[in-house]
């Protein structure tokens, strides 16, 4: 029916562009560096996601608007994934073994449980959804927006028992001299239990600052990135035609397992010393793969007072290929920044024709600390280099790493030493930065023989950016 309507009434050819705006926060408003399917949600997180316009045309020609909770939404939206037209999610799906006489607090299946069931691998069963590649990414993104829509609808219907914060607003209005406070606008409160909300982010930030108040400044800042070439991923996909990006659910699940093992390894094996506290956050930043930012609070006996103790732990030099061939291969694959600059202007780090990560660094014969509290690691000019895309990169382009962690976990692991309180702003900015966002504009494509309109009004939208990995 859609094909027939399109043939009868061809629409204008339009395109959607994502704008890399420099006047916004670069941590949230940045261009995606990976080719992936993502949802662009116009407006704030609680304003528009639970109010979607889903319209379909019946056989008689009339239009009908349905909710994403309708059982026919999924088979109508994804006819390739539901070729038999079986129902999607319904709000009254009972759990197995639940009867009318059962006294269960949750007798029905939640939407998250329903989608979790649909994206599981099962022996002796071929799943069309899991093998649909890019369509599977769209299915994941759409599923998570449906889950958030259901959660927001529930929170909106339970505002009577979530009004505790509105009393403070009434008291403030009364203190300002307003005697009649009956007309004060009531807020729709998004509690701290809602993942990604403002109160959720603020609570995490306050918890992190409480750790900082109790244990002192963090001593190490570590970035741990998922590796799509892990042996587990290759073994899982070896008998299929799928690529790692076609199974974001497997990548995210494996990354969480690896991250838990990574933190356990640091705590039990005491790689940096005795760890008192760990705080971390997982984010995506439109890169296609999840990565984690970790802060380590060390015991007072493991706080290194001088830079001489840091050289055996953190290295920024390329090893000798003859003496350590395995470590040389790992360093060249995971910890080399580049090529960039004139050799590669399309590198994601290039901003205004310069590297935003301040590479290449300078050579240093000894480690030291600059005036802002950031360490300057020992980078000797020993002649070692790594060749990438015909460009020779030396020690000035090495990201700080730990030899043991790099050999064991085989991923991009950036290890930084924190020395002064001035680095707190940089460390904890990831805790409460909020979800990724993007600025998009809708343009009308014009034929080459038509005169292009110079002065036109464009609709810019401030959108929340939701990727397939984040959804899974």
3D architecture notes:
It is a single chain. With 472 residues, this protein is an alpha+beta fold. The protein has two domains: 226 residues, no CATH class; 231 residues, no CATH class. 27% of the residues lie in helices and 16% in strands. A four-stranded antiparallel beta sheet has the order 1-15-16-2. The longest helix has 24 residues. About 4% of the residues have low confidence.
Which SSEs are present, and which pair or pack?
Elements: H1 2-8, E1 14-19, E2 38-42, E3 54-57, E4 63-66, H2 73-77, H3 111-118, H4 134-157, H5 166-175, H6 198-215, E5 220-225, H7 231-236, H8 248-269, E6 275-283, E7 291-298, H9 325-334, E8 350-351, E9 354-355, E10 368-369, E11 375-376, E12 386-388, E13 391-393, H10 403-409, E14 413-417, H11 424-428, E15 437-444, E16 460-467, H12 468-471
Antiparallel strand pairs: 1-15, 2-16, 3-4, 5-7, 5-14, 6-7, 8-9, 10-11, 12-13, 15-16
């Amino acid at each position: 029916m859609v094909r027939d309507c399109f043939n009868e009434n061809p629409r204008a050819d339009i395109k959607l562009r994502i704008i890399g705006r420099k006047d916004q926060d670069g941590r949230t408003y940045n261009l995606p560096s990976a080719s992936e399917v993502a949802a662009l949600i116009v407006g704030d997180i609680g304003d528009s996601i639970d109010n979607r316009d889903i319209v379909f045309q019946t056989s008689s020609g009339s239009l009908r608007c349905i909710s994403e909770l309708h059982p026919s939404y999924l088979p109508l939206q994804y006819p390739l994934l539901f070729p038999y037209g079986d129902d999607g999610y319904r709000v009254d799906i009972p759990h197995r073994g639940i009867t009318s006489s059962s006294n269960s607090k949750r007798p029905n299946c939640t939407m998250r449980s329903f989608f979790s069931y649909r994206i599981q691998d099962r022996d002796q069963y071929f799943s069309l959804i899991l093998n649909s590649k890019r369509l599977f990414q769209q299915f994941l993104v759409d599923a998570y927006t449906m889950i958030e829509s259901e959660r927001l609808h529930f929170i909106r219907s339970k505002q009577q028992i979530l009004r505790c914060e509105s009393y403070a607003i009434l008291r403030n209005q009364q203190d300002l001299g307003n005697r009649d406070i009956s007309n004060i606008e009531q807020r729709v409160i998004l509690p701290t239990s809602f993942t990604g909300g403002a109160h959720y982010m603020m609570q995490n930030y306050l918890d992190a600052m409480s750790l900082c108040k109790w244990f002192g400044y963090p001593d190490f800042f570590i970035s741990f990135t998922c590796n799509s070439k892990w042996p587990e991923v290759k073994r899982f996909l070896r008998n299929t035609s799928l690529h790692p990006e076609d199974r974001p659910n497997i990548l995210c699940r494996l990354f969480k397992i690896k991250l838990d093992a990574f933190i356990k390894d640091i705590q039990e094996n005491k790689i940096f010393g005795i760890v008192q506290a760990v705080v971390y956050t997982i984010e995506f930043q439109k890169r296609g793969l999840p990565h984690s930012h970790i802060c380590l609070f060390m015991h007072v006996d493991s706080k290194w007072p001088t830079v001489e103790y840091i050289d055996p732990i953190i290295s920024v030099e390329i090893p000798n290929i003859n003496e350590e061939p395995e470590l040389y291969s790992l360093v060249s694959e995971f910890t080399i920044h580049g090529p960039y600059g004139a050799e590669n202007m399309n590198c994601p780090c290039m901003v205004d024709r310069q590297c935003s990560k301040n590479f290449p660094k300078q050579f240093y014969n000894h480690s030291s600390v600059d005036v802002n509290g950031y360490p300057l690691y020992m980078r000797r000019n020993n002649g070692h280099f790594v060749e990438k895309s015909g460009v020779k990169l030396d020690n000035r382009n090495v990201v700080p790493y730990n030899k043991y962690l790099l050999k064991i976990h085989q991923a991009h692991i950036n290890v930084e030493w924190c020395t002064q309180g001035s680095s707190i702003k940089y460390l904890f900015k990831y805790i409460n930065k909020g979800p990724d966002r993007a600025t998009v504009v809708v343009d009308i494509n014009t034929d080459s023989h038509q005169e292009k309109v110079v002065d036109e009004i464009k609709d810019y939208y401030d959108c929340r950016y939701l990727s397939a990995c984040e959804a899974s």
